[in-house]
Write a structure and sequence with these properties.
The complex is a heterodimer of chains A (596) and B (199). With 596 residues, chain A is α/β, with parallel strands linked by helices. Chain A folds into 4 domains: 219 residues, Thiamin diphosphate (ThDP)-binding fold, Pyr/PP domains (Rossmann fold, 3-Layer(aba) Sandwich), CATH 3.40.50; 102 residues, Rossmann fold, CATH 3.40.50; 170 residues, Rossmann fold, CATH 3.40.50; 56 residues, Alpha-Beta Plaits, CATH 3.30.70. Chain A contains 20 helices and 22 strands. Chain B is an alpha/beta fold and 199 residues long. In chain B, α5 packs parallel to α7. The chains are: A alpha/beta (596), B alpha/beta (199). At the A-B interface, β1, β8 and α11 of A face α1, β2 and α2 of B.
């Protein structure tokens, strides 16, 4: 045993490894990516398989395949990834599994790095599978380890739900570093009645799934992760996940004697919870995400104590959106006692510092070229990745979900015939969900330009490899899947690959594509600057004599280009891409090879 | 049970804030102190405003309560002002005054005096300097993070030996000496101030 200062995600990965994981499948997504990164590190020692799959549906189906062959497996994703994997999730509960199957889902309350803040516990209830929610990195480790056993006990996939603050929270964590053998079980046994979901079999499986619910409800009563103390309290605080710590910290500060309950699973331990609810005068429910637990508490309370006041997100004691904090919880507790808290110092309003494309990012050039060529009336249908930051340059008009850039763009193009429509998608996103969309464009013949911003990596989530990079999660090299060939095979009328750093050449190519008809794909290929081993040998300078203060260079939104006393200044952040020089209409910015 | 020593580290994505959190966390393990923390990953790392919390001797959640931080370590002055509301009146702010302007032409950057006033308003003591220049003098702007940890060092409930050991366990060997120099420079810079304040 040893102690380490670990990220919640890393602790969770240790738990999966210690639990006898045989194979892990994931698509990167904040705040879940570091789990797989740690697993890649642990794979050899613990002797399991780990991969970056092309999307969450593919990941879960793979994990399911492993599990019905009798081995322990997991699929790891962020909350919106679960939408992509929802199809296999629902029916995997019907067939059940043989080896433990753990679906790790990281929710993002407060929307730190997502497009919504959906609550995955609703999916677990929807699919009728158990869900465990840890409250600390240590508990993430313990629960991950235990969840395989739990999954096998009921033959059901188990969801392990975390949130950003836990995934990216840290603590001193006790880990066991012995390394365990993969838990080999039965191997795949043919059982069509169980695994072939034709209607007759599915009806039986659905009934079995419903029958399992009763046993599940019994079993969760005795889970060691709940904290439900005996004894009567007038004021009960029912918490799930991290909220438990907030309540405890405040109780410690205030020296109070609230009954603080921690619920660690869904379904909840109804019997135990009913017992404490029976004597309560008022109940405050603290949870990250939707008022899932509050709805359950209200239902349970109706039968044992209909007069109890139940507070939480449903009645506005806490905001329904956003992430919990000690301050919000403190406010809610004050309201509980009928007091209004004096407002503490709050953040002052200062210039915001939104995330931006890095200095030298090749996407900046691609966006500027697209804007110049297609003009102000063009509609840029965007997608998800670093390049969503093109919003700052006015070069991203939409962002909905992975792959939507192309299909949404095709929908827009269908009715906005007079305006140019450009769909913008990244390389990893293209593999994830762009391919069916491109085939649909070709099949149904839409006039659309698809720009694939190929920076040779999954950049935003921390540079994971993908099929176009010729490298697997474990670092194994293989023949890369060529985007240009792929797009041709999908039926694109024209496919061109360009280097966005060569601004003039690329402008000419994109201009030609603009004049064309049908489905045209342009691949802007230039490696993410953060991956480059060699520094640029270009030196970028401003000739202040030639500058006419037109400020066109500022449209690039480059952090290395500052405006000081009516002149642009190249700051030390400059990565030497020289793109600003190509766009200066007065040749006031120059790029020259560095002299050594 | 004693109150934990709570620190908030802030700056601009890419300045190496996570490393500071890791060093403090490891030093806590070396001294057998419980520790919790939280940090920014993902989108904001692309030059956005980033914060990390570390709570030394803490057994509760990862977030530092507003108005209760013992230490604010800001690697950039605008970010110092942004996160100053975490400070408690008898806390300490260690602020690097080298500005990093937000990208694009739409935002203006407040004056240094205005930013400093926002930090001072909390009542906390302030140790502010251009630590970026000093890091450059020592060899690389990349050691700004360890240099500032050194400046905060004498005020932490951790020994300098633990911080150096944490550094040795964390950074690649070839960068250890440079980082150690930066840490020591910071320590030597602020130790006289601490004694002055105490006296």
């Amino acid at each position: 045993m040893k102690k380490e200062y670990l990220l919640g995600n890393h602790a969770l990965a240790y738990g999966l490894a210690e639990g006898g994981l045989s194979a892990s499948f994931a698509y990167p997504g904040t705040p879940s990516s570091e789990i797989t990164e740690k697993l890649i590190e642990l794979a050899r020692k613990y002797n399991f398989y780990v991969e970056w799959s092309i999307n969450e549906k593919v990941a879960l189906e793979n994990a399911y395949g492993v599990a019905i062959s009798g081995y322990r497996s997991c699929a790891i994703m962020k909350q919106v990834g679960l939408n992509v994997a929802a199809d296999p999730l629902m029916t995997s509960a019907y067939t059940g599994v043989i080896g433990g199957l753990v679906v790790v889902v990281a929710d993002d309350p407060g929307i730190h790095s997502s497009q919504n803040e959906q609550d995955s516990r609703r999916y677990a209830l929807f699919a009728k599978i158990p869900c465990l929610e840890p409250a600390s990195p240590q508990e993430a480790l313990e629960m991950a380890k235990f969840s395989f056993e739990f999954s096998e006990k009921f033959g059901l996939p188990v969801m392990l739900r975390t949130v950003t603050r836990l995934a990216h929270g840290k603590a001193d964590v006790q880990i066991n570093v012995t390394g365990r053998q993969v838990n080999r079980k039965s191997g795949f046994k043919k059982d069509p009645a169980c695994f072939v979901m034709v209607p007759a079999n599915a009806r039986t499986a659905g009934r079995k799934l419903n029958e399992k619910q009763k046993q599940l409800l019994e079993a969760v009563e005795d889970l060691p992760y709940h904290q439900i103390q005996e004894g009567k309290s007038e004021t009960i605080i029912v918490t799930s996940g991290l909220a438990w710590h907030y309540a405890r910290e405040l109780a410690f500060q205030e020296n109070s004697h609230w009954g603080i309950i921690k619920i660690a699973s869904y379904p909840v331990p109804e019997k135990k919870l009913k017992m404490v609810l029976a004597d309560a005068r008022q109940v405050l429910v603290l949870e990250e995400g939707e008022p899932v637990l509050q709805e359950i508490v209200e239902r349970l309370s109706r039968s044992v104590n209909p007069g109890a006041e139940i507070h939480g997100k449903l009645d506005g004691f806490l905001p329904r959106e956003g992430e919990l904090s000690l301050e919000l919880v403190e406010d809610a507790i004050y309201r509980l006692s009928g007091k209004v808290r004096k407002t503490s110092s709050s953040p002052v309003s200062l210039p915001v510092r939104p995330p931006v494309l890095c200095p030298g990012c090749p996407h900046r050039a691609s966006f500027q070229i697209l804007k110049k060529v297609f003009g102000r009336s063009a509609i840029f249908s965007g997608d998800i990745g670093c390049y969503t930051l093109g919003i700052n340059m006015g070069a991203i008009d939409t962002c909905l979900c992975m792959g939507a850039g192309i299909s949404m763009g095709s929908g827009i193009a269908r009715r906005e015939e007079s305006r140019p429509v450009v769909a913008i998608i990244g390389d990893s996103t293209f593999f994830h969900a762009g391919i069916p969309a491109v085939i649909n464009c070709a099949y149904n013949q839409v006039d659309l330009v698809v720009a694939i911003l190929d920076n040779r990596t999954t950049a935003m989530t921390g540079h994971q490899p993908h099929p176009g990079t010729g490298q697997t999660a474990a670092g194994k090299k293989f023949k890369e899947i060529n985007l240009e060939n792929l797009c041709r095979a999908c039926g694109a009328d024209e496919v061109m690959t360009v280097d966005p750093y060569r601004v003039e050449e690329t402008m000419a190519v994109v201009n030609k594509l603009k004049q064309g008809k049908g489905l045209r794909v342009v691949i802007f290929q230039q490696e993410c600057l953060l991956l480059r081993k060699q520094e640029s040998n270009l030196e970028v300078k401003v000739d202040t004599e030639k500058c006419r203060q037109c400020k066109l260079c500022l449209e690039l939104g480059c952090p290395a280009l500052e405006w000081q006393q009516d002149k642009p200044v190249i700051s030390p952040l400059c990565a030497g891409c020289g793109v600003c020089a190509s766009f200066c209409p007065h040749q006031a910015i120059t790029k020259n090879e560095k002299k050594f | 049970m004693k109150k934990s020593f709570d620190m908030v580290i802030c700056g601009v994505g890419g300045q190496g804030i996570i490393l500071i959190s890791n060093l403090v966390g490891k030093a806590c393990l070396l001294e057998d102190l419980p520790v919790t923390g939280t940090e920014t990953h993902g989108m904001a790392q692309r030059g956005g405003s980033v914060e990390a919390h570390v709570r030394i001797g803490n057994i509760f959640g990862p977030q530092v309560p507003v108005g209760k931080a013992d230490l604010l370590m800001a690697l950039e002055p605008l970010e110092a002002a942004r996160y100053a509301y975490y400070l408690q009146p008898d806390g300490l702010a260690v602020v690097n005054m080298a500005e990093i302007k937000p990208a694009g032409w739409k935002t203006s950057y407040p004056g240094k005096e205005q930013l400093a006033a926002l930090v001072q308003k909390t009542g906390a003591k302030v140790l502010a300097d251009d630590f970026t220049s000093q890091a450059k003098k020592l060899g690389s702007v990349k050691v700004l993070n360890t240099l500032m940890l050194g400046v905060a060092g004498p005020f932490l409930p951790l020994s300098s030996g633990s911080l150096v050991e944490a550094l040795r366990l964390t950074v690649p060997e070839k960068f250890f000496l440079l980082n150690q120099r930066a840490l020591k420079w910071g320590y030597d810079y602020s130790l006289p101030r601490k004694e002055e304040w105490r006296g």
